[in-house]
């Protein structure tokens, strides 16, 4: 999970929850991605001294891998 346009991000726990601290105040885009799933994002507005909650959903997608040839 990342905040678009920053170096901020976090991994989710086993239930998919995450916390990202130090996010600058203002309108931000939260983006989530995982191999084998499509990308999802949400617009949030961060205010000073408050927490923001958002829900993102990953949908499974087919992924085509390239062949690896070892000699």
- For the report, how would you describe the main beta sheet? 3 strands, antiparallel
In the predicted model, the low-confidence regions spanning at least 5 consecutive residues are none
Task: Give the percentage of residues in beta strands.
Answer: 15-25%
Q: What is the spatial order of strands in the main beta sheet?
A: 1-2-3
First-residue to last-residue Cα separation: 37 Å
Which key phrases capture this entry?
mainly beta; 71 residues; 3 strands; 3-stranded antiparallel beta sheet
How would you describe this protein?
- By secondary structure, the protein is mainly beta.
- Helices cover 0% and strands 23% of the residues.
- The chain is built from no helices and 3 strands.
- The chain has a 3-stranded antiparallel beta sheet with strand order 1-2-3, with no helix packed on it.
- It is elongated.
- The model has no long low-confidence stretch (mean pLDDT 92).
